[in-house]
Amino acid sequence: MEINLDELKGCYLPTFLDLYINTSKELDLNKFSKDEIGTFCHEWIHFIQDITTGSGCNNSYVFFEHFLACAKKIKDDGIAFTPPVNVGNAFNVETNEELNRLAWGKDPLREFTRINDVNVVYAKDVPGLNIRYKETENFPIAITTTDTGDFQIGMKVLMESMAHLCQDILCPGTASNHPIYPYHVAELICETICHGILDNPLNLIALCDVSLMSSAPGAYFVSFLKRISQKQIPMPTCPEIIYDQAYSNPKFLPKFYEIVHLACHHFCGVLIDPQVFKSYRYWIKHTYLNAIRLRSKDRYFLLELLRNGKISKNPKFLELLNLFGTPLMHNNNGQFGKIPLKDENEWDVEFLQVIKQIDEIFNNRQKSCALVEWCKSSAQHLCQSGIPKDKISIPDASCNSNPTLRSTAHPQCPFGLVWYAMDLPLMNV
Fold this sequence. Notes:
five-stranded mixed sheet
């Protein structure tokens, strides 16, 4: 599920910690223009959503549940496999994927300018919604009625609306041209249901954030606003109250802890060797432990970040940057870079690029490895650094015809190393 910022400026790929900025410049924040910093800020907020919210962690868990089920089936069959790998609903992977799609929401069919009404209904009651599994029938869906038709709001809309608002505060003047969908949808819903909550922009950001902690983000968001409009709860006088109301639910933090541990377990479950993948496993565990710490000990961390103003002189931003580093960033020249954790030079987020390639092959979306140019650049850099050629993995014809053969080569490329470490048989071509 890809998150695009105007599609031309940049995008963030959840789960794979992949942040793209449409620039030819070196990936150095100090060299970015004002607009490029704004794009980075927007996508970095998506990164924070990805690793510190229940919805973000669940999205990763659902992906890895399917990925690991594919790997298990291939290994259990014990022979060269032919894509795609079909696991059916083993381990409830398809049920969980259906729930995740419902939580994500659905794009409108046509552009719109006005929202007329919003209601929460069960998935089974939505006309034309294809529900395959009984477990998903009673999933709450937020249906938005616009001047051009209906659509389902969920995780995507709230992530984008929240990132847009955060960008506007942290990088003023860089978010003014964002279209209505999906960047202003949360605001329009508030204007329709409960206009008063918009008196403080931080109220809307806080509500998006706690909604993303829910398994049904769209329904949580709409239900909260309706409860205010129906006088069931008072209008929050400050955004802290929105957090406090969410935390007052005794299941709020335990459910978050549960999905964090599941996501962390699956991230590490792909690359299990504690020595070969030491840096990767350290960063994953470090990240999710600190996500738990933030949500349990520093529940207003996002408000503190936003109240400190511009990102360039923001101590909370620097604190979070030191705590989590950045996703793997890349530009339109195919160059990659990252800001590591404080005092940590290696954290091997690059392996997630390989996992993405393997998933594409599992599902027959591609047969070659798309990391060839990256590997060529890496080989050139290593040669210039004085590394002997026999210690460097050089791309060859198998990268395009059957990259699983790279697992038998020496030295192994990142793709070959991960394939070998997962103990997978070769692909049949």
